């Protein structure tokens, strides 16, 4: 460098390709249920969800090599209380996250922000377990539920 006191202008970083959606955009997403979930309705408005545990493919291959037998499917059960069951019943492929939060807030007399936060946290946990997926509001691959 000939002139160490001369600095280049810093350029602004390029916008991220997969930037997280804004709060308003996130509330427009539509949750859909994984078709392999078995639902058992219980008394007092609760329900149980039975689903297969998704394991890492390398783990399944290693188990099959060591045991020389196919890996048996692992079943899990998730019990939902009355509030969780209400949210689960509203996941029909038509209601957005915001609409579900609004219904939850009206039913249990919650403030809008509290209902949105509770609903999004619950749906995020269901998505992490593979029980639901969130689709963009105008996704052409989305089919209308029957």
TrEMBL record:
Question: Which taxonomic lineage does the organism of this UniProt entry have?
Answer: Bacteria, Pseudomonadati, Thermodesulfobacteriota, Desulfovibrionia, Desulfovibrionales
This chain belongs to the protein called Coenzyme PQQ synthesis protein D (PqqD)
């Amino acid at each position: 460098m000939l002139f160490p006191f001369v600095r280049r202008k810093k350029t602004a970083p390029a916008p991220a390709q997969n930037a997280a959606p804004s709060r308003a955009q996130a509330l427009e997403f539509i949750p859909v249920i994984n078709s392999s979930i078995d639902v058992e309705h219980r008394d007092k408005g609760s329900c149980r969800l039975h689903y297969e545990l998704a394991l890492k493919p390398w783990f399944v291959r290693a188990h099959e090599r060591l045991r020389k037998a196919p890996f048996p499917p692992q079943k899990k059960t998730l019990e939902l209380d009355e509030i969780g069951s209400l949210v689960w019943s509203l996941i029909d492929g038509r209601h957005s996250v915001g609409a579900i939060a609004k219904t939850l807030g009206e039913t249990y007399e919650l403030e809008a922000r509290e209902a949105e936060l509770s609903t999004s946290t619950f749906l995020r946990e269901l998505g992490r377990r593979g029980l639901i997926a969130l689709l963009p509001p105008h996704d052409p691959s989305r089919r209308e539920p029957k």
